[in-house]
Design brief:
The chain is an all-alpha fold. It has 14 helices and 2 strands; from the N terminus they run αααααββααααααααα. It has helices at residues 2-10, 22-50, 76-90, 96-122, 130-151, 175-194, 202-219, 222-228, 239-257, 266-283, 287-293, 295-314, 324-330, 335-355, and strands at residues 160-161, 169-170. It has a two-stranded antiparallel sheet with strand order 1-2. The longest helix is centred in the N-terminal third of the chain and has 29 residues, at 22-50.
Length: 360
């Protein structure tokens, strides 16, 4: 919105041309989303408390979590509001990749909202039936995949890029649609599984979004893309502003979500943010790098899969409780220690992901 205004003002005063730079708008996006989250947060928490939007706590979970019963949930709406405001102000609203990212994020956010609402109205932790949740997730992801496949103009936009290998492109054809579907749905549910401790999911999301912002910037720049040996996708650089908005909104939310949390993200935030990371990774052609940088999300998901498979096949559990962050809690790790150590691991993994830009 402001970009249009500044482009008009540039005709009369050239200094306004500085707002064309992605780097400046990305920084402004971070600050705007952060300030909006900090400004809206207290009022939204009071509103959730007034509506008695307290998080139902699993009776079979760690006993230390029982004291969290009643803490407001659906705080992810705060993140979505901050992202929306930042993008309306600093994003290029004529960019198709921006709209695909926003619509995917808010589409999954609506699914999460329905899930959270049912949990609160029925006063249990089950929420929306899994078959309905996965149906709507699958529908949105498949629509997005088909749209991206149909608007692709070069083989680089639909091929699989392998980190560490220069100029290696694996043609996927219609397999691109399947890959996109799994990345978006898988990332969404992986972040949702990770959202079990105060601040555990949001900080890795912020770090991965920051890493993807770098990939978006260089992928959308022809010179950088050629130099680094990655595919050049015109227009995708604008996603750097979107990722920056996630960073700012996430940090603002963490102000209220840090241990002990004043508000929980809920599915409205976790499903939306996971889908956002997934769709950005697809558009910048870095699905494997997302797998690396989001290693904590992958670990949480794999721990659940292994736990369920082991119990069904052998009747025995591999972990004391899944997802794996509960396993470490039951081993005696204090909650803040689990959280911070998972953050440290994510920092390392994001740096490894960024290193693949040069190690080719």
């Amino acid at each position: 919105m402001l970009l249009i205004l500044f482009e008009w003002l540039e005709k009369y005063y050239s200094a306004f041309g500085v707002f064309r730079y992605l780097t400046l708008r990305a920084m402004l996006g971070v600050m705007t989303a952060l300030l909006v989250a900090l400004w809206v947060g207290p009022g939204m928490i009071r509103l959730l408390q007034a509506f008695k939007a307290g998080q139902p706590i699993r009776s079979d979970g760690p006993q230390s979590h029982l004291s969290k019963a009643g803490t407001p949930t659906m705080g992810g709406a705060l993140i979505l509001v901050a992202i929306a405001v930042a993008m309306l102000l600093w994003g290029d609203l004529g960019n198709r990749y921006v709209w695909i990212a926003l619509l995917t994020t808010f589409g999954f956010g609506l699914i999460g909202f329905a899930d959270d609402y049912l949990k609160l109205s029925k006063r249990n932790s089950r929420g929306l039936a899994s078959r309905y949740k996965y149906f709507w997730q699958s529908l949105i992801a498949l629509v997005v995949a088909v749209v991206l496949f149909s608007i692709a103009k070069t083989p680089q936009e639909t091929g699989l890029i392998l980190p560490l290998f220069k100029d290696v492109l694996i043609p996927l054809g219609f397999g691109y649609i399947l890959l996109t579907y799994f990345v978006i749905v898988g990332s969404s549910n992986a972040v949702n599984l990770t959202d079990g401790l105060d601040g555990l999911a949001i900080m890795p999301t912020v770090l991965v979004a920051g890493g993807l912002a770098v990939f978006a910037y260089v992928t959308g720049n022809a010179k950088f893309a050629l130099y680094l040996g990655i595919p050049y996708v015109p227009g995708v650089g604008e996603l750097a502003v979107f990722c920056s908005a996630i960073v700012g909104a996430g940090l603002g939310f963490l102000w209220f979500n840090s241990y002990p949390a004043q508000v929980f993200m809920g599915d409205v935030g976790a499903l939306a943010l996971g889908a956002a990371l997934g769709v950005v990774a697809v558009m910048v052609r870095q699905e494997i790098v997302l797998f690396i940088m989001g290693g904590i999300f992958v670990l949480e998901t794999v721990s659940v899969i292994l736990q369920v498979a082991s119990f069904k096949l052998t009747g025995k559990r591999i972990f004391r409780m899944a997802p794996i962050h509960h396993h470490f809690e039951l081993k005696g790790w204090p909650e803040p220690k689990v959280i911070v150590r998972f953050w440290i691991i994510t920092v390392i993994l994001v740096l490894i992901g960024l290193a693949t830009l040069k190690v080719r």
